[in-house]
């Protein structure tokens, strides 16, 4: 976490308007409406837009498989030092089939020797967009060797969406849901 407290407090569900409660209710995950969504709900029209795009990237609209998506999300989360995102998506990534070893590889990045293509290419694409807002020609050709046009577009959409999410989380100071915490090894690696 970049801040020790929220810069913008999440809306308490019971204090929200009926309209906002109706927008938040479908976002309930394991019985909890995440602080991310309750924070964005301070600006209801932004929540509507955020939900629509998020539905494409995360909730079944994307042509990428869940495992591939989570490789991208976790690499962006790691590079962005977004604790909320990292902790949430380690859990989601494991559910999508990522192993503990692969999650450790994501921390190191595309230079980790255990990566095989096309996974290494996904990690590299996330690194390039994070650093330069551009996927170089070589990496783009590697993506095109194994993915179709929509999948290549969804690689970019996913990386860009999670760059946005990480910026929101870090800048608004969104705090963990429930008793989640940033693991000590991650905190140390990020110098927090």
Record the SSE blueprint.
Elements: H1 18-24, H2 35-40, H3 44-57, H4 66-79, H5 83-95, H6 100-108, H7 119-132, H8 137-146, H9 149-172, H10 184-189
Helix pairs in contact: 4-5, 4-7, 4-9, 7-8, 7-9
Question: In short, what is this structure?
Answer:
With 192 residues, the chain is mainly alpha-helical. The model has no long low-confidence stretch (mean pLDDT 95).
Describe the protein.
This protein is mostly helical and 192 residues long. The chain has a domain at 66-172: Up-down Bundle (AhpD-like), CATH 1.20.1290. Helix content is 61%, strand content 0%. The protein has helices spanning 18-24, 35-40, 44-57, 66-79, 83-95, 100-108, 119-132, 137-146, 149-172, 184-189. The protein starts with 17 loop residues before the first helix and ends with a helix. The model has no long low-confidence stretch (mean pLDDT 95).
Number of strands: 0
- What is the N-to-C order of secondary-structure elements (H for helix, E for strand)? HHHHHHHHHH
Largest sheet: none
What is the arithmetic mean of pLDDT?
A: 95
- The unreliable regions are none
Distance between the termini: 8 Å
**Helix tally?**
10
Q: What percent strand?
A: under 5%
CATH architecture classification name of one domain: Up-down Bundle
The radius of gyration is 17 Å
């Amino acid at each position: 976490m970049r801040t020790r407290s929220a810069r913008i407090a999440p809306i308490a569900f019971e204090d929200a308007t009926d309209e906002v409660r109706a927008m938040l209710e479908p976002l309930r995950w394991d019985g909890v409406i995440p602080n991310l969504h309750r924070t964005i709900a301070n600006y209801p029209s932004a929540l509507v837009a955020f939900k629509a795009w998020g539905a494409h990237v995360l909730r079944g609209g994307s042509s990428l498989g869940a495992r591939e998506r989570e490789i991208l999300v976790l690499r962006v989360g790691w590079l962005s030092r977004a604790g909320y995102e990292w902790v949430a998506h380690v859990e989601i990534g494991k559910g999508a089939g990522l192993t503990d070893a692969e999650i450790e590889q994501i921390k190191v990045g595309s230079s980790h020797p255990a990566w095989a293509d096309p996974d290494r290419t996904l990690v590299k694409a996330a690194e390039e967009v994070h650093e330069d807002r551009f996927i170089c020609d070589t990496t783009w050709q590697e993506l095109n060797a194994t993915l179709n046009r929509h999948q290549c577009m969804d690689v970019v959409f996913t990386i860009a969406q999670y760059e946005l999410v990480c910026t929101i989380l870090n800048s608004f100071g969104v705090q963990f849901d429930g008793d989640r915490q940033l693991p000590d090894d991650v905190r140390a690696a990020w110098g927090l």
